[in-house]
Amino acid sequence: MFEFLTGLEIDVRERTAAGEAYVPAGHPEFADHFPGAPLLPGTWTLELMQQIAHPLIEAVTLQTGRNVRVSLAAVEIAKIERPVPLPAQLIIKARVSSLDPGTATVHVEALQGRARCGVAELTMRLGAYAGSGEVGRGPLALAAVERALANRG
């Protein structure tokens, strides 16, 4: 998880995030996705969008004093607007459009250069940590992204 992210900036006050991802052409996950002319699968574009939305929601809710477990509840809108040839450098921008006690909606865009290649509205479920092993656990996605970025040097 988060292996393609190369950067993440979160502005809690503005409820926005911008992330960078680099997806190599030779990754084994994409070996059969158009050999000779590799493309990033649309599902992976959505996964990268969710990987920016998730820590954004953790950071925003933490700012309000809530330590919540965040999970993807629904993809309300998803549109892959153009193919993304590999290797690909993507910028992913996310903005919280609504935040309720149990859910949050995040508008996310993926760009390759200046061209938008995908847009989505993601509904994130906000829940309490359950079970003794999870009591007091912090923002897991934020910590995972920080570890992944630190390991890349």
Q: What kind of oligomer do you see?
A: single chain
* Classification by helices and strands: alpha+beta
Distance between the termini: 17 Å
Count every beta strand, where a strand is a DSSP E run of 2 or more residues.
6
Beta-strand share of residues: 35-45%
Instruction: Work out the radius of gyration.
Output: 16 Å
CATH class equals Alpha Beta
Strand order of the largest sheet: 1-2-4-5-6-3
Describe this structure in words.
The chain has 2 helices and 6 strands; from the N terminus they run ββαββββα. With about 150 residues, it is of the alpha+beta class. The protein has a single domain, classed as Hotdog Thioesterase (Thiol Ester Dehydrase, Chain A, Roll). Strand 1 and strand 2 form a beta hairpin. Helix 1 crosses helix 2.
Summarize the model shown.
Helices cover 22% and strands 41% of the residues. It has helices at residues 42-63, 140-151, and strands at 5-11, 16-23, 69-80, 88-99, 103-112, 115-127.
Task: Show the helix and strand layout.
Elements: E1 5-11, E2 16-23, H1 42-63, E3 69-80, E4 88-99, E5 103-112, E6 115-127, H2 140-151
Antiparallel strand pairs: 1-2, 2-4, 3-6, 4-5, 5-6
Helix pairs in contact: 1-2
Question: Can you give keywords for this protein?
Answer:
alpha+beta, globular, 153 residues, 41% strand, 2 helices, Thiol Ester Dehydrase, Chain A
